[in-house]
Amino acid sequence: MRIGVLSNLRAGQRDSQVDSVLAFLERHPEVLHVETPDDASVPPALRELARAGVEILVLNGGDGTIQHALTHLLGNPANTWRPWIAPIRGGRTNMTATDLGARRDPVRGLAELIAADRAGRLAERVEVRSVLRVEIAEGVHYGMFLGFGTLHRAVALVHQVFPEGKAQGVFGAGIVTGVLIARAAIGGLGGVLVPDKMRIALDGEELEPREVLLAMTSTLQRLFLRMRPFWGREDAPLRVTLIDAGAKRFGAAAPGILRGRPRAFVRPENGYCSRNVHELVVQLDAGIILDGELYDPIPDRVVRVGAVEGVRFLRA
Questions:
Q1: Rounded to whole angstroms, what are the CA distances from 115 to 22, 33, 269, 309?
Q2: pLDDT, tens digit (0-9, with 9 covering 90-100), for 32-66
Q3: Could you tell me the residue range of the domain that residue 244 belongs to?
Q4: Handedness of CA 105, 107, 110, 116 (dihedral sign)
């Protein structure tokens, strides 16, 4: 199968790992390679790969690159190009690629993918997943993780506090997450942790309007640092977790929530909700974050989330 690599390399963020991938590709001219300087250049690069007959699309970038590629591939009904998608760890957080089983060393992952293609063993590396379909004022986007309010402000804080580059990835996000959980546990709400008023509907069921401390949805099994803050049991693709501002005993609840194994008192009547649904609708004034891309607050913003099921990825 024809393999093509899209490398989305933002200026000022190249490092030795990125250079290793580029050097590897220079030694494999049979692999078509397109390099882009920013997210806006991703769609035309994908059109070039489609015209070249690429069947396996390797995405060498971060979570935002995967989101832009998915939006291009799934968002246009006229687009009939459906390559197998193989993300490698080429960004800062790499939450999607990691959850799909990508190697820590992207060169090794890419080499193994090429070898599997030559040996006719790609079927062993297939990961079929659902993808978020997110309808907002800015358009319809496709991705893997969506956060509301507090999560938007937390990522903005990471970008503000840590220098541009890898420090804004898992390292910075991990530190900020730990600090915010500790503050919330002792009741230190304020700043990033200001609760957001939201109106929420889960599969058409409208919940009581509430002030929410944490709200997220994803089709990933685990987030960065192997966190799994979802514990719904319903047979549906969207994992949704909501934690109210007045949730009881948050400090005691947090460790179990992060592992997806909540304690017995973590129930809706105590301010905790985690369900798997087919559709999520949220109305709020705060900003949102989709796979690392920040969308600024809009008054009475309405976010409608569904899922595209059966998207085929490859582990690289």
A1: 18, 17, 53, 28
A2: 999 998 888 889 999 999 999 999 999 998 899 99
A3: 145-290
A4: negative
